[in-house]
Amino acid sequence: GAVVSQHPSWVICKSGTSVKIECRSLDFQATTMFWYRQFPKQSLMLMATSNEGSKATYEQGVEKDKFLINHASLTLSTLTVTSAHPEDSSFYICSLGEGGLSVNTEAFFGQGTRLTVV
Amino acid sequence: KQEVTQIPAALSVPEGENLVLNCSFTDSAIYNLQWFRQDPGKGLTSLLLIQSSQREQTSGRLNASLDKSSGRSTLYIAASQPGDSATYLCAVTGGGNKLTFGTGTQLKVEL
User: Fold this and answer.
1) Do B101 and A103 touch (CB under 8 A)?
2) What is the pLDDT of residues B14-73, one digit of tens each?
3) Contact residues on chain A for B49, CB-CB shorter than 8 A
4) Per the CB < 8 Å rule, is B89 touching A106?
5) Which of B44, B93, B102 is the closest to A103 by Cβ?
6) C-alpha separations of B108 from A12, B33, B80, B85 in Å
7) Alpha-carbon gap, residue B87 to B89, rounded angstroms
8) Which of B109, B98, B87 is nearest to B31 (CA)?
9) Cβ–Cβ < 8 Å for B9, B103
C-alpha cells in the first residue's frame, strides 16, 4: 500500500504564531490530498481538499485564510495554521486522494499531527 | 450530504465476548466502506475495506458486512481481547476518494 509521511507528529506553539504541517506521499503521485481535523472525543471532519498546482477546496465553515494549503508537487501538501489560537488545538491528519489510486482502494493516512496552542 | 452514524457510542465488554459494532449511512451512492481503528492520540489503522459490490470481508477475528441498499454495515469482533480496546471508526468513500467518517464507537475490553 501507499505510504504517507506526516510531520511533525506533535507540536506546541504559542498563541499568535503559525505552524506548518507537511504531508508527503512516498510512493504515489497524488493529485489530491485530504486534510482532516479531529477535536477531542469527536470524529474526523474533512477540512479541505488539496489540489496539486491549483487552489485548495475548503469545506463549509473552514477559514481558507487561516488554514493555508499548498500542494506544489505531486508528493507534498502542506497545511499552515496561521495566527494559531488555543481553539485550533486539535489532531490534524492527511490522506491521499486520487492520482495513482483507484477509488476502490483503501484510504492511506499520515500518522497525524497533534497541535497544542498555548 | 452524507451522514454516518455509529451505534453504540461506547461499549464495555469482558474479555472473550463476541461483539457487534454498527454503522449506518444516509446516501447509498458509495464506492466502498472502511473500518478503522484509532488508539488514543494516534492515527488510523485500516482494518477492513468492503467494496460497494461486496457483502462482507473477513480478516482474522474481524468480519465486516455491508448492506448498501439499507445503508448499514456491521463489524463483528470474535473472542475479544484487551488489546482490542480502541475507538472504531467506519467511513464511506464518495467521489474523489473523499471519506465521510462516522462518530466512532469507543470499545473497552476488560480482563
Assistant:
1) no
2) 999 999 999 999 999 998 999 999 988 788 888 999 999 999 999 999 999 999 999 999
3) 105-106
4) no
5) B93
6) 30, 23, 10, 5
7) 7
8) B98
9) yes
Q: Rounded to whole angstroms, how far apart are CA atoms B96 and A48?
A: 12
- With contact defined as beta carbons under 8 Å apart, do B91 and A107 qualify? yes
| Contact check, Cβ <8 Å, B98/A112 | no
- CA dist A115 and A91 (Å) reads 6
Inter-chain residue contact B44 with A109, CB threshold 8 Å: yes
Question: Which one of A32, A43, A109 has the shortest CB-CB distance to B43?
Answer: A109
- Rounded distance between C-alpha atoms, residue A45 and residue A39, angstroms: 9
**Higher confidence at residue A47 or residue B97?**
A47
Q: Which residue of A has its CA nearest to B45?
A: A109
**Contacts with A88 (C-beta within 8 Å, 6 or more apart), sequence order:** A66, A81, A115, A117
Please write the tens of the pLDDT for every residue from B71-85: 999 999 999 999 999
pLDDT (mean) for B74-99: 91
A31 vs B53: which has the higher pLDDT: B53
How close, in Å, is residue A6 to chain B by CA atoms?
10
Q: Is the pLDDT of residue A103 over 80?
A: no
Classified as helix, coil or strand, B105 is strand
